[in-house]
Amino acid sequence: MLITTPERLAYVRVLTIKDSANTLLNELQSLGVIHPERVAKIPEEDRVRLQRELEGLRKLESIVTNFETLIKKPKLVEVKEVIEAADLGKYVKDLLERLSRAYEKVTTIESNLERLKEDLAEHQRLMLVLRAISSDPELGTKYLDDISFQGLIVSSATLLGSESGFKSLEGLIKGKELDIYVIRRLQLNEDTYTYIIAGPAYCVEEVVFQAKKFNVVRVAIPSKHVKVKEFLRDVETRVNLIKQMIRDATDNLNKLLSTAVNDIAIAKIVSKLWGERVNVLLEGLAGDYLVAIEGWVPVAQLLPLENQLYSRLKYVYVAKVNTKANPPTKMRNPKLLRPFEMITKIYGIPNYKEWDPTPIISYSLLLFFGLMFADVIYGAVMFVIVNFILERTGLIDNPYSEGYLTFKRILTFLSVSSMLFGFLSNSYAGYSITLSDSGIALKVSTGAASQSLLPILNPMF
Asked: Residues 6 or more apart from 193 whose CB is under 8 A from it?
């Protein structure tokens, strides 16, 4: 890593009630929010944002209520999810999305079930009538188009209903003097009958229309050139198939409801907690009892900041907002290189969109200082002075100031670099360690080092 980029920042606006304004400001400062400042007037977009949160909550509560009507038996659900306070709003949106998709599937299955049940009832009525017709010695050998025919002049109809219903219908036919003929009257069970009628087309249609008033329904028998018994077998097969489809759809519905039960339980808890917060903030906004504080937050610290605020303050709302202001620069370097940011700042802080040269400055300084001051003993002396002696001399006004501590870390790194390069160059206060047959020996270094050290080391000096 030779260069880095400044920390990516997000501009946030935090809403809370006036009673918590000072607490909020202190929390933001302690969490490292850059340039926190109070907003004179809360923008309209915050009211719209809170209103949307409330609308989402209402939709979620409506979906939960609809699900509860579908769950026939009460179920005990153990909620194991751990939800951070900062995630409540996001969790509400995720739950709304998931449960909306699930409810859409449920309504589709419910619609299919209703259609299948209607289809089953119709086919069961048809099967009941066909069984009665097939049992008739005369009609049982006929074709369907002999019994059911639709013409412009003459047509027929098969009706199904109770004995009392047919009596009322017969009275209506006589009262209106409709030209209707009963081809066959068959009893299906104790109080259920079927009539096969024929006559002029307009009279038959009138009877079918009026029959609904007496709970007498028309059974649709197709005009096919097929034997009654053959078609009955097809209808029985179709009835069994529809029953299987209903069982499959019911199983799918139950599985879907079982899957959604956990989300429904969580939604009831989360919507209550989040709803209370949103409602209080909206009421405070309407009564001019809210304050807003804005500031820059590192993107990586946004979630921890929200967790901290939501856990410390009951009524608070954090939102990322757009701004035309230029973001400040917050350097982002590895922990070991952060002290060297002081040297970068001496020459100027990089712009938000510029590269940060702190890493390459750190490496260069450590390298060249180590090469120029390469001596293990001198490096060790420097390390001891910086870390154990300098503070005790009284020359440092405030040994706990941030500036001094940063400078101390830089000197510590430089002393370590000096010792490392001194070890590599075999330099120990002007001496070199050599190995020979007689053992370890110290020799005075030659060159520039010997010229500066020899007068001091000469015992005759």
From this structure: 160, 161, 162, 163, 166, 185, 186, 187
